[in-house]
Each structure stands twice: as C-alpha cells, then as structure tokens.
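Why do we care about 3D structure at all? Because function follows from shape, and shape follows, mostly, from sequence. That is the central idea of this module. The next example makes it concrete: a single protein chain, its amino acid sequence, and then its structure expressed as tokens.
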Amino acid sequence: MSSNPDYDRWYAARHVRILLSPSHRLETFGNTLVNYHLISELDDHPGKIRVREGRLEAHQPLVIAPHFSEVVTEGFSDEAKAYVEWLKANEESMRILRYGYCLKTDNFSEQIITDSLAAVTERVKSEVVASHDGFAAVLQGVDEPWDVALVELWRREVDKSFSQNVKELDENGKLFG
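And the structure:
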C-alpha cells in the first residue's frame, strides 16, 4: 500500500477482475447471499497467493419516493414554483431503488497458498463452477485494500439486476402502486 489511501482505493477499484459473476441476479423481494472468492497476490511476495472467501449479503431493494409536497419555494420565481408544482403532481412516477449490502464475517476465511497466481485462480474458478452455486463469484484483485473489490462486485451486481428488479416491482404493484 502507498501512503495515499485515496490512490490505494481507486487503484484497487480499477484493478478488480471479476472472473466469474453470479449467474443469478440480486433478488427483488428478499436478501441475496453472494459467496465470494477473492484471489490476490501478496505484495512483495511473488508466488504467495491469498484466497479470501466469505459472503456478501445484498439487501432487498427498497423503493424510495420523493416528497415534493414538503418543498417550500419562498423567494423563487413563478417558473420555479410552477416546476415544483409539476413535480408534486408527478411524484408518483419518480421512484428510485436503494440497495444495501453487508459483509458477513461469520463465514469468512482466508488462506495463503504457495503457487502461481494463474494456477490458484484456475483451481478456485474450477471448484466454484463445479459447485453449481448460482450466487458465487470469483474475483482477482489487490491484497490491500482487498475489500474495495467486494464493493465493486456489489456495484456491478446492482447494475446488472436493476432493470429486472424494477420490472418485477412494477408487475407486483410495489413500484407505482
């Protein structure tokens, strides 16, 4: 790690490789447990590979609705007030989804293996594929700050799941109903 935490954070985020994504998307009406396997080479120790395993719990997406009826427009122009009135009249169609997640330490483990990065990566990936776990992910990233890779995995899974989650919420009357 460098002496600049901002650099380390962005470096870690840019260097995450998701080798195997969950085949299932995040659940719309419940929490989702993603089983991650994060592989990283130890800094300054070539041939030493750390494999971290754990669970990432993605919480059920929540529908967030604005409350334009509470907006006060003192000192604003008539155009701004008219726009706020339009927002109030149309706030039912202005919903967003909020996703949350939690790193679970109850199933966390790590081990250091002496081998090449490529060999360990292939072995872990093969084991995960053989497990047929639709909620498993294999990532390769930096050793520190390693957990940035998990945040990036979560961000990508939210992005991948969003449109289907919106569709299912709408079909069940939970988005605009």
